[in-house]
Amino acid sequence: MQHALGARRAGCFDVNIACSGFVTALALARALITLRPTAKALVIGTDVYSRFVDFEDRATSVLFGDGAGAAVVAAVDEESGFFDLDMVGGGDAHELIWLPGGGSRRPASAETVADRSHLLHMQGRQVRDYVLDNVPGIIADLLERCDRKAADIDHFMPHQANGMMVAELVDACGLSSAATHLPLDHTGNTGSASVAIALDEANRSGLLSEGDLVLLAGFGAGMAVATGLLRWSAPAPAPVAGAAA
């Protein structure tokens, strides 16, 4: 992407943490821009699950879709932008969603192809339990640090895992008064792209207003969770072509 955009002076790197990747990368972008307030960062979340989903496994293949979403991150005034972001890892549960083969520990071979270990494996029930046992507390801690309550949230942009899990998460977090955005009904679970897509669709649909409190939550493979709370600020309208400056 850096090459395709011709951004020759830009640094670039990959954040390889699946479903929480977009929010994690936003946290990194915010930290870097704090060091250099005149800089801007392009944060892209994308996953192409069709390349490694096992289409013989109906428990996973019906859930996932390919997608991408992006955001340009820049400094804003103190009344807007992120209050705080958080990242929490649960590496002891990494086998709940993983690819057993194809990496450095077990490189791709005729054996990994034969036993389908280079394809996605997921323990759906245990993933649900992990999310409901951990994410509500992580969100509650974030809101407490930001001196906010769940009832203050206007919009919730969760990872698009599946509709039933998200509904349970909303109840567990006390976020029933927030507008929960669920593009998964036409995108499926797009991994690291899902929060970005939800945010973009809400913005393009005119559902976000100046000053709204927006809660982002990515969670999944790793296992890993990344959350962020921001006050929405509408970007300044682009100048009309040919208009006087």
Briefly say what this structure is.
The protein contains eight helices and nine strands. It is an alpha/beta fold and 245 residues long. It is globular, with a radius of gyration of 19 Å.
Parts with pLDDT < 50 across at least 5 consecutive residues = 240-245
What's the SSE pattern?
HHEHEEEHEHEHEHHEE
Strand order of the largest sheet: 3-9-8-6-7
User: Which outline best applies?
Assistant: globular
Give a quick account of the main beta sheet: strands, pairing sense, barrel closure. 5 strands, mixed
Strand percentage lies at 15-25%
Structural class: alpha/beta
β-strand number: 9
Radius of gyration: 19 Å
Structure characterization notes:
By secondary structure, this protein is α/β, with parallel strands linked by helices. The chain is 31% helix and 21% strand. The chain contains eight helices and nine strands. The protein has helices at 2-5, 21-35, 58-61, 110-114, 124-145, 163-173, 184-187, 194-204; strands at residues 40-47, 67-74, 81-89, 97-98, 121-122, 155-158, 179-180, 213-220, 224-231. The chain has a five-stranded mixed beta sheet, sandwiched between helices. It has a two-stranded antiparallel ribbon with strand order 1-2. Strands 4-5 form a two-stranded antiparallel ribbon. β8 and β9 form a beta hairpin. The longest helix has 22 residues, at 124-145. The chain is globular, with a radius of gyration of 19 Å. Mean pLDDT is 91; it is low at 240-245.
